[in-house]
Structure formats: C-alpha cells, structure tokens
Amino acid sequence: MINDMFVFDCVIHLYDLTHQNTRTDRPDAKVSRAQMLSSGMALTPPQRAGFEFEKRWGVEDMHDLVFVQSPTDMAMAQAVPIFDWYKDGFAPVEAQYAMAKAYPDRVLFCGGVDPKYKGLNYAFEQLEYQVKELGARSIKFYNGHIKGAWRCDDEDVAYPLFERCQKLGIDVIQFHKGVPFGLQNVEQLSPTDLQGPARDFPEMEFIIHHLAVPYFDEAVSIASRFPNVHLALSGTLSAALFAPRIVQKQIGELLQVVGSDKLLWGSEAALIGTPAPYLKAFMDLEIPEDLRSGYGYPQITMQDKEKILGLNFAKLMRIDLEEKRRTLGLHSSTIRGEAA
Known about the structure:
Blueprint: E1 8-12, H1 29-42, H2 59-68, E2 74-78, H3 93-102, E3 107-112, H4 120-133, E4 138-141, H5 158-167, E5 172-176, H6 195-200, E6 205-209, H7 216-225, E7 229-232, H8 244-257, E8 263-264, H9 276-284, H10 289-295, H11 302-316, H12 321-328
Parallel strand pairs: 1-2, 2-3, 3-4, 4-5, 5-6, 6-7, 7-8
Helix pairs in contact: 2-3
C-alpha cells in the first residue's frame, strides 16, 4: 500500500528470454529477442543498469521484485502468447500459473491463447485447460505476427474465442496493442479492430495495453466512446523517469477525455525491473500549469491516483478490497526502493 492506497498491478510477466527458449528454426528469432532485451534495458533507470533480463523468471525472484522491493499488494501474472520466436511463449502459461499458485492471496492468473498457433480448435482446448484446470481469471491476446496475423474483429477467428471465454465465465479479456516486437507490421496492432468486438460483446470488458502507442489517439478515442473499454498504463509510466513531459501530457489527456475510472496501473515487471521507482514517479506526478492552461487538462488528484493504482482493476476482477486488506493484514507504507 501507498498512503492507504491499495496497489493492484494489472500486469506482471514471468518472462523466458533465455537462449534455450529461443526458436532455432526462425532466422528472425535472435533479432527479435535482442530487440526485446534492448527495449527492456532502454526503459530501465540508470541506477539499475546491472539488472538481469536474459533469464527465465521464477516465482521467488518475481515475488521479491514485485512484493518485497515494491509496495504492491496484488498483481496479475499474464501469459504472452507469442510463439513466433519462443518455444514456450514469451511469458509461458505455466510460469504465470506457478506464480498464482504460489501466492493465491496476492496473484491472479491471466492465460493466453492464439488462434493461429496450432489452429482454433487447439486455442479452444487451451482456453478450457487454462480456465478450468489452472483457474485463469482473464485471457490475453496478441494478434500481430509476421505470418499468421489476425484481427480482433474477425467474426470467424476472433469472435469464437470471445464466445468461448464467455461460456467459461471469463468476461475480462486483454490485448497487447501497439509496441510491436521485432519486424512485425505495426498496423497489425492498431486498437481500431476492438471497436467491433466492444460493440458486439457489450457484456465483456476489454483492456487495451501500452496505451496502444503509437496509436495513442485511437486508443483514447475508443476508450472514451465505448463504456466497456479500459486502458492499461502498462510500461508507459517508465518514461516518467527520463521523459516526464511525455507522461504528463498523456495522463493529462487521458484524464480529460477518458477519465480516471477507466485507467489501470500496470508495471510490466520484470521487463522494467522493480515497480518501486515508477510507483514513486506516479505518486509525485502532477500536470504542469502550462499543460492545464494550454490544453485544458485537469490536475490529477489523489482520488484519481487511488482509482488508477488499484480500485479500478479490483472492481473489474470483483475483488472485495476491505476483505483483502484484512486477509493480507495490510498497512500503509512509504514506497520501498525509492532511494534505490
């Protein structure tokens, strides 16, 4: 907790960026892996320059990173179904499940499937397995690929997956948008293909990750118009440490157009290191006067921050925070690691 605010990180990943998990039958696998590693290092504060990215993250390492070094109260461990360059996926299903199994009071498991990886029937089988056997509370999708890309508004490919999610009791589904990896076409990850599903599945909640950068304007438009579309700040707040002006402008526009009720805190740990410095940067964040007078942005309030840090995602996940506080014996704290 931070100043009595519950911190619920909507996305952490136990990555496997080892050579052993890298496919040898794809000539672009090493290049794409190197790009992912360099992206992580570029977003890491200088004081954490020795942080190790090239590893398979285990449960205890992740627990230390997220819950010991930082004042996070709950988190969702999300699979990333990218098999283009990784044998077991970018963030393997079983590794995310292991985290939730080890810390069931603190961690929820988000599964992940891809209809173009071994076909739609295999994706159905995986959905059944991940929800019924592993207890997935949400499902993550990544639809951009050099070969085999698909659209989220494809009624023959995507809609059957969403319908199966509904049948299994999953009503919160999540999408990596923008921020393409490797040599993929960036337009494949535009969020515009979520408008149809959001309209056709009004009882489901859709989460767009990474603010869909470089499609920020599109993501803002969609989230402002569709009541069941939410925006995760996953990884985007890392820029507050070296390019604060970008974050101030983004948050100002999000508050003005979308509103704080639909924004979710997400760290992307472990790729950005411990969440602690980013949480501190967010707590210190203010919208400067020139942006407020020049663009009409509102000032961010402590109520806004409390919603973004945990209240909004807890509501989506139907977590009773008062009960959770008692279960975990939570007390307010300063931000651990702020001097690191």
